[in-house]
Amino acid sequence: MSEPRVHAEPLATARLDLLPLRVEHAEEMAVVLADPALHTFIGGTPHSPRDLRARYERLVAGSPAPGVSWCNWVLRLRAQSCLVGTVQATVTATRGGDAEIAWVVGTPWQGRGFASEAARGLVSWLGRRSVRAVVAHIHPDHLASAAVATAAGLAPTEEEQDGETRWRLALPL
pLDDT (tens digit, 9 = 90+) per residue, 28-81? Predict the structure, then answer.
């Protein structure tokens, strides 16, 4: 396995600290992500703390594919010192530095702009790396995620994958 070329590092936005994912975040994040409604557009069900810990162990270990970096952060709301969600980027060097991003904010913290703030911070960070384009896949009925993607500078394309629209932002090199 080759060493990933991009590593998650601590980031800060106006209200959030984006902390590189650690296995120890699983218990608190299992509570944050416990609402089944979060799975309406992505499928599945909430993970138990044990299952989420196993998932985080795999994510923290990194991608087994050469040239692929898994960068994952939890979102800490600075004012309340609690976790409220996650953002992630899968950076693929073999495609010229594309990054596929995703985000989720727990139901109690939705509607306050945290996902948009975190996504903008993530896209800005990726722009300071050798990333050529940022993409996200969003269900066409998920208006909140479309608003987050728009706030982060992405625009919908005509491409679809598994029933989701591909959103894209080309970054200046």
Answer: 999 999 999 999 998 899 999 999 999 999 999 999 998 899 999 999 999 999
End-to-end, the C-alpha distance of the chain in Å comes to 27
Instruction: For residue 47, give the 3-state DSSP assignment.
Output: coil
Give the number of other CB atoms < 10 A from CB of residue 10.
10
pLDDT tens figures, 76-127: 999 999 999 999 999 998 666 899 999 999 999 999 999 999 999 999 999 9
Question: For 97, which DSSP code?
Answer: S
Q: How far apart are CA 143 and CA 15, in angstroms?
A: 23
Q: In the chain, how many domains are there?
A: 1
Residue 67 sits in a domain whose CATH number is: 3.40.630.30
Coil, strand, or helix at residue 50? Answer: helix
Query: Cβ distance 164 to 139 under 8 Å?
Result: yes
Q: CB of 29 within 8 A of CB of 53?
A: no
Residue 30 lies in a domain: yes
CA separation for the pair 152, 149 (Å, rounded): 5
